[in-house]
Design goal:
By secondary structure, chain A is an alpha+beta fold. Chain A contains 14 helices and 41 strands. In chain A, the strands form nine sheets. A seven-stranded mixed sheet of chain A has the order 32-31-33-38-37-39-40. In chain A, strands 1, 2, 4, 7, 9 and 10 form a six-stranded antiparallel sheet that branches. In chain A, helix 3 packs parallel to helix 6. Chain B has 24 helices and 19 strands. The chains are: A alpha+beta, B alpha+beta.
């Protein structure tokens, strides 16, 4: 009896005691842009937002900062203040004798909050005790964010696992899950492969937002597999123990007590892993979160406790419906641990994709896409970023323009150098000196920005505001800046011009940024990820999850097909190895991967071997390689991603080939590809890589072509003519010649008639 | 001579429908050229189109078999470029944020539409200028030669001017019994004689007596009438009722005909009974104010009306719509009677009469040979007065006669008339083009929504294409930027006149253009003040532009373009300032270049052979081939007169002999009637002289030469204006007793 109590206690401890795990993050992971931050002037600061998952509980956190400061700084008056969520956690004095330093600061556990935590690095820098030029060039210090680290030990704090906690487990912040396993029965129904599993992969990846999620597919045994008894020779499998064992996640390949795995299948398919009671509850499209118990055999934990998400139904269609619900639901409002989907409306691929972008020829206020009012006070430089998404195939005529109708104002008493600059996607579009000493308020301040400055995908409008206090006019005297104020209202609006849906393909950078052509935004036709066998499932699901993240919406039109036959309809990604790709007809391609490879080596071709981004490439030269080498070799450790015009599709579409030497290598390379560092570097139509740092080669090797909405023939014509101006010009000249000849003959005939009368 | 076919039937221009279709096709090409391609592709294609236009215009300027073919291609391409530009402007660039910018944007676009439409109409009119062969009456059956009444209407011109015209008219190479010369005096009418103002009445009586004496002395018929109704038209109509000639030739008081005037024009009346008008060019024997004050290139640069008479009338003639220009024309009485004589509803009675007869199906002929030499207005004031009458008159025709929908006119005649009439609406567009940069530079209104690339792709090709085609059509008769200068000079005054006529179409009355005014001093035109204001505004705009460049660097592209535009206007204005300084005219008559070989016989019976260098009724300059060591005070210039077909002896007084250069300046001193007639015949009645002079100055120059010629003026005129202004100020304040006019 005593022993049973001990087992029970041990089981509880295993179940509910979280083990702190140390994770080291580079601070540069939390910011976009340059990892070397320089802080200028007498006072400067920078903020770093550090996300924390809602299910993570920080046990311990240490911050290590790699700092270099100017040797001109005054020792006693120059220092860095490190604040975490506005609480000062460290003060680092700058020592001119020791300009480089590494400082370690502990972040108190109590300061951590779920969501975004603000790490603020502020400096106070002086080179003199009085009469100092606050903008002197010697007032600087810099923080190397790449070398600076944040070490966090965290545990999962969730005991009651309900549906709303899913966003905590699958979260881009610290403590979020970066890998998930989908378990199904060994018998794989077509609908499950085709749609349900891709949908679940997308649903979970979407919760991870931008953080990559590796998705693995596993199959559980038809009936519980009992563990080896090992030393527990006196262990006896009683009925009760059997039942308890069946309640555990005995089927897990790599049991872990702080990650969620997913069980997918119909009630009948899940009978091997669920209890009868649980099976009985499944009477429709069903989602359930569950904490499974541990199973301890003797003093050994045979099966640890786990978090389990069940996606089920009585039929395959219901399972798919449950997956759809999982993909679109807001976790926060589902506080129970299960739900049953009764019906769904307006849940089509096109509908979902269109909802994620601003629709051309419309008027949007900033409020419409979730932007709040921006208020800036005191002196300094401030930035307000307005980000929104346009359809990937956003295509506008040359002189179309986007109107920005800004509502903003600034208070009285601004000093010289106070300005507002506006950039769109990094391109400078407007500047305004804030030079009215009485302040000013603008309503519908109209900026007409050429629409070509905007692009398909995510667009960013930056409002950079600098507020300076007026000059005192007396040496060494500074006017306080507390009165300075600037406000940008979210009633400001964006008026988009009419646009077509046409895109120039192939373009891996557009694919990386928007998932185009798998996300179309106007008419989402069926697209496919083709795998030769089940061995490629993990790669396919991982990639599909990434595409959903990029598109920021579930791609209901994206399917998995198994086999070597490539779909003739819609855009397709073919995964494979040289052996499996032999089945694919690649003779028309400039690059081919099969038993032999055809490479368009750079020295065999010229201009084509450069990365050309669509925005800068206006030459529209026919890009077709004229040289290649056919060879037989091993792909080695690398992955290759190619994009070419689909040779079989009836309409212009793109065929992607993602290949590696073996399925295992392919999976590793896909995991590398979806990493934040490599995915953003996708470009051209030929992309090779062997790690997650940078590509080994990126090239543009095939001729470009247009993919668009055929119903808008005018825009399609425009694009075609822009790509082939010579045909048009030739046609024009021929027409001119024709008209001129006829006019000339008729004029001459009239002249002859007049002459006849003389 | 070709046979005089009297059975001329009405010609059926069955090709015209096809022509309409094809001109429409040329417009459609504009649509095609506006194909939906990006600005870069548009830029490339525009450049290629311009290259093709350039090559075609080059070929079209050489006389060769396919000259007109290349001309047609260039015109079609230019029309297409213009159409494309206007469509692009209309479809893509007209955006505005408030009522004010809406007005400004549409004003500018309206001006551009106007410019585009007139250039397209001009291209159609001048597509195929008609060159008629020279005709003569020699060898013609004398019995069929019609009788001609030569009518010389006069109002207030000097007897001296009239005498020259009458003597020349009397020397016309035409059967004497069929030629009747009439002086139509409107300055000595009963109404004038009985005027309430006794001074005016006395002057009118004196004028009538003087004119009657002149007519008696020269043996021509004097006409006057009761009332001065309908001005010149009424004067001619009154005389027509009292004459019976088959044909009526009308000559202005200062229009001296060459002897072959009737010989070259009457045959066209005999050839086709439907011809109601044979018009010839007005050749001006003196420079107009612009030519005299600014260019000082009267004998080297095509004159302002060379373009109209040398090119446009020929184009109109091709389309059967050359019109009556008030003088130097032959009209058929029978046809005039049908419309009650010269029409008088507008103050341009000439064009109106032609329109009335064209719409009845009668035809006109234009003979491109200068056979009448007249006088251009001497002062800027008179010049503006003349142009105001033309502009108002043509606008009256537009409003009262509506030639665009007049029944009876063929489509091409409508195009011809509309082209001629619409030209006179240029003041609206010109004023807008001058002031529009201010709207942007000073008031910050976005008048032109386009990127620099689009300006390069659409605007520049349209402007360059229009210029190239204009050079092809008018290059020989109008140098670059001269039109702009003339338009700028006139636009402000004409705008005022046009607004008046638009408000009250029947209000304007005929004002006789003052001619033969003397310019014995250099002075600033009294009409200058408006140009001072304009210049002030443009300078403000220029400074505002510089400020904008500094203050608003993001808009530098547009600012630079508009500043260039404004600077161009300013340069033109500087040139205009130079025109406004009325320069002293040394000679009474302008001397024109001449090349005749002559013999100089001195009193001492020595004679030298020489060549004329220049010539006028007053005198001549000769280059002697010998030493000429003993030059006497009196001499006789002996030369061959083509007009009289004999040698003439012109007594002259030697003014100066340059022994180094062997040049001799003489003044003619005709004493007898015969000598006077011979002098007039030698100097003014030889159409070959005018032709040669005209050919000498109608030549093409490069754009840069032309631009330098027009714009190369500097600040000197401003300085001169300031001198005069200061002088006036000093005079007004009584600081200086003498007048401050600048004598040069």
């Amino acid at each position: 009896m005593k022993k049973n109590w001990l087992v029970f206690l041990a089981s509880l401890i295993v179940s509910f005691t979280a083990h702190g795990q140390n994770h080291v993050y580079k601070l540069s992971d939390f910011i976009a842009g340059d990892s070397m931050v320089r802080l200028h002037g007498a006072a400067a600061s920078m903020d770093i937002a550090i996300p924390l998952s809602s299910v993570a509980e920080v046990q311990e956190a240490r911050l290590q900062l790699d700092i270099t400061s100017s040797r001109a700084l005054l020792e006693n008056r120059s220092q860095m203040f490190v604040r975490f969520n506005n609480a000062t956690i460290g003060q680092i004095a700058f020592d001119p004798q020791r300009p480089s330093l590494t400082s370690e600061i502990t972040i108190p556990k109590a300061l951590w909050r779920t969501g975004f935590n603000n790490l603020s690095l502020s400096v106070s820098q002086h080179y003199a005790n009085q009469c100092e030029d606050g903008g002197a060039p010697e007032l600087w210090s810099e923080v190397n964010l790449y070398n600076s680290t944040l070490t966090v030990a965290n545990t999962v704090n969730d005991n009651a696992f309900t549906l709303n906690e899913l966003s905590g487990f699958f979260n881009p912040g610290i403590g979020g899950q970066r890998q998930v396993q989908l378990y199904t029965a060994s018998e794989l129904k077509p609908l499950l492969i085709d749609q349900t599993l891709p949908l679940i992969a997308q649903a979970l990846a979407l919760r991870n937002q931008y953080q990559p999620l590796k998705v693995q597919h596993r199959v559980f045994a038809d009936k519980p597999v009992l563990p080896n008894q090992e030393d527990d020779t006196d262990w006896d499998w009683t009925e009760q123990r059997n039942r308890r064992y069946q309640q555990t996640a005995w089927y897990l390949d790599e049991p872990s007590d702080d990650v969620v795995h997913v069980l997918v299948g119909t009630a009948q398919a899940l009978t091997a892993v669920l209890t009868d009671d649980e099976i009985a509850q499944i009477d429709g499209a069903y989602l359930k979160t569950q904490r499974t118990p541990a199973f301890i055999m003797g003093d050994r934990v045979v099966v640890p406790p786990s978090y389990r998400l069940i996606v089920s139904g009585t039929t395959d269609e219901q399972v798919q419906e449950a997956a759809q619900t999982l993909a679109v639901m807001d976790d926060a409002i589902n506080l129970s641990d299960n739900l049953k989907t009764l019906s769904q409306r307006a849940l089509t691929a096109t509908h979902l994709q269109r909802n994620r972008v601003l629709v051309p020829d419309n008027h949007y206020t900033f409020e419409d896409f979730g932007i709040t009012n921006a208020n800036f006070r005191r002196n300094g430089s401030f930035n307000k970023q307005v980000s929104f998404r346009l359809p990937a195939d956003f295509y506008v005529i040359e002189n179309a323009s986007v109107d920005l109708l800004l509502d903003f104002g600034y208070g009285a008493g601004v000093g010289p150098g106070s300005v507002m600059n506006v950039t769109v996607n990094g391109e400078f579009v407007h500047g305004l000196a804030l030079d009215n000493s009485n302040g000013q308020v603008f309503r519908n301040y109209k900026l007409r920005v050429p629409a070509r400055t905007f692009k398909g995908g995510t667009n960013v409008i930056d409002f950079d505001i600098t507020l300076n206090a007026p000059l005192a006019g007396v040496p060494c005297s500074i006017v306080p800046s507390s009165h300075l104020a600037f406000q940008l209202n979210n009633s400001s609006a964006l008026v988009l011009p009419d646009a077509g849906s046409v895109s120039v393909q192939p373009d891996l950078s557009l694919f990386a940024e928007t998932a185009y052509p798998f996300a179309r935004f106007t008419a989402a036709s069926r697209t496919t990820v083709a795998v030769p066998s089940h061995g490629f499932f993990d790669s396919a699901l991982t990639l599909i999850g990434k595409l959903a993240q990029v598109a920021q919406t579930p791609l209901l039109n994206l399917h998995i097909s198994v086999g070597t036959r490539v779909s003739e309809e819609g855009s397709t990604i073919v995964l494979g190895t040289p052996e499996t790709l032999t089945e694919l007809e690649q003779s028309q391609f400039s690059t081919a991967i099969d038993a032999t490879q055809r490479w368009p080596y750079r020295l065999q071709n010229t201009l084509h071997n450069q990365i050309r981004s669509l925005t800068n490439d206006q030459s529209f030269k026919a890009m077709e390689v004229d040289g290649d080498t056919v060879q037989k070799s091993d792909l080695g450790n690398q992955g290759i991603l190619l994009a070419q015009q689909h040779p079989l599709a009836s309409q212009a579409d793109t065929l992607f080939i993602l290949a590696a030497q073996t399925p295992t290598i392919l999976q590793d390379r896909v995991n590398d590809l979806i990493s934040l560092s490599l995915w953003g570097q996708l470009a051209g139509d030929f992309f090779a890589w062997k790690d997650n740092q940078e590509p080994t080669l990126a090239m543009q090797v095939t001729r470009k072509y247009e993919v668009g909405e055929t119903e808008d023939s005018w825009l399609y014509l425009r694009l075609w003519l822009s790509n082939h101006p010579w045909y048009w010009l030739l046609g024009f000249i021929v027409s001119v010649l024709g008209v001129s000849v006829l006019l000339y003959l008729l004029l001459k005939r009239r002249n002859k008639e007049i002459e006849k009368s003389w | 001579m070709t046979s005089l076919d009297e059975s001329q039937a009405a010609r059926s221009h069955y090709t015209t429908l096809h022509l309409v279709v094809l001109f429409v096709a040329a417009f459609c090409l504009g649509f095609l050229l506006l194909a939906p391609v990006d600005a870069l592709a548009q830029l490339v294609s525009s450049f290629i189109v311009l290259v093709v236009i350039s090559l075609c215009t080059k070929e079209a300027r050489h006389t060769q078999q396919y000259q007109y073919f290349f001309r047609t291609i260039a015109l079609v391409l230019a029309i297409a470029l213009t159409t494309r530009y206007l469509l692009w402007r209309g479809i893509y660039t007209l955006s505005y944020s408030d009522v004010l910018s809406f007005i400004v944007v549409w004003l500018l676009f309206g001006a551009e539409i106007y410019a585009g439409v007139t250039s397209v109409l001009g291209a159609i009119v001048n597509a195929y200028p008609l060159t008629r062969p020279l005709q003569t009456l020699k060898g013609c059956d004398p019995t069929i030669i019609p009788s001609v009444d030569v009518m010389i209407p006069t109002y207030n011109e000097d007897a001296e001017i009239l005498e020259v015209t009458i003597r020349a008219a009397k020397m016309l190479d035409y059967p004497e019994d069929k030629l009747h010369i009439h002086l139509l005096d409107d300055g000595g009418t009963d109404e004038k004689i009985n005027a309430k103002d006794p001074v005016k009445a006395l002057a009118a009586k004196e004028r009538r007596r003087e004119m009657q004496a002149l007519c008696t002395r020269l043996n021509i018929i004097y006409h006057t009438r009761e009332k001065n109704e309908y001005a010149k038209a009424g004067n001619v109509n009154s005389a027509i009722q009292n004459t019976h000639g088959d044909l009526v030739a009308i000559l202005d008081a200062d229009h001296v005909p060459t002897t072959d005037f009737l010989d070259r024009t009457v045959p066209w009346m005999l050839k086709n009974k439907k011809v109601f008008l044979v018009q010839t060019p007005h050749f001006m024997a003196n420079p107009d104010p612009v030519e005299r004050n600014y260019f000082t290139a009267f004998s080297r640069m095509p004159s302002e009306n060379d373009m109209f008479y040398g090119t446009i009338q020929k184009g109109l003639d091709y389309w059967g719509s050359s019109f009556f220009c008030g003088s130097a024309a032959l009209l058929r009485r029978e046809h005039l009677d049908l419309v009650g004589g010269i029409s008088g509803e507008s103050i341009t009675e000439d064009a109106e009469t032609a329109l009335d007869l064209h719409k009845m199906g009668y035809e006109s002929v234009y003979v491109d040979r200068p056979m009448v030499s007249g006088l251009a207005p001497e002062t800027f004031d008179a010049f503006i007065q003349q142009r105001m009458r033309w502009a108002q008159g043509m606008t009256q025709i537009l409003l009262l006669k509506k030639p665009y929908k007049t029944q009876g006119l063929k489509w091409y005649q409508r195009v011809g008339y509309m082209s001629s009439i619409m030209f006179w609406l240029f003041p609206f567009a010109r004023v807008i083009f001058i002031l529009m940069p201010l709207a942007y530079l000073v008031f910050g209104l976005q008048v032109y929504q386009a990127s620099l690339l689009e300006v390069l792709a659409f605007t520049i090709p349209h402007v360059v294409g229009a210029y190239m085609v204009s050079t092809m059509l008018f290059g020989r008769t109008r140098w670059p930027l001269v039109s702009e200068l003339y338009e700028l000079l006139q636009c402000v005054f004409l705008l005022n006149a046009l607004v008046k006529v638009l408000m009250k179409p029947r209000a304007p009355s005929f004002v006789v253009t003052p001619k033969g005014e003397s310019l014995d001093k250099t002075f600033v035109s009294p009409l200058s003040s408006v140009f001072y204001w304009l210049m002030g505004l443009l300078i403000i705009a220029l400074f505002a532009g510089v400020y904008k460049l500094i203050a608003d660097p993001l808009l530098w592209e547009l600012t630079v373009v508009v500043m260039l535009w404004n600077s161009f206007n300013l340069l033109l204005l500087l040139s205009v300032m130079s025109v406004l300084i009325e320069r002293k005219q040394v000679r009474k008559q302008a001397r024109l270049p001449a090349t005749n070989s002559v013999t100089i016989e001195m009193e001492n019976e020595q004679a030298w052979v020489g060549n004329l260098m220049d010539l006028s009724l007053g005198g001549a300059m000769l280059h002697l081939k010998g030493e000429g060591s003993k030059v006497s005070k009196r001499a006789v210039v002996r030369g061959w007169s083509h007009a009289l077909d004999k040698y003439v002896n012109l007594p002259a007084e030697v003014l100066h002999f340059n022994r180094k250069k062997h040049t001799l300046r003489v003044r003619f001193v005709a004493e007898t009637e015969q000598q006077q007639n011979e002098l007039i015949a030698f100097v003014l009645c030889d159409s070959r002289r005018w032709l040669s002079f005209q050919r000498r100055r109608t030549r093409e120059v490069s754009y840069w030469f032309g631009a330098k010629h027009v714009l190369g003026v500097g600040l000197k005129p401003v300085y001169l204006h300031m001198l005069v202004f200061m002088g006036n100020l000093v005079r007004k304040t009584g600081l200086m007793a003498s007048p401050g006019k600048d004598n040069q």
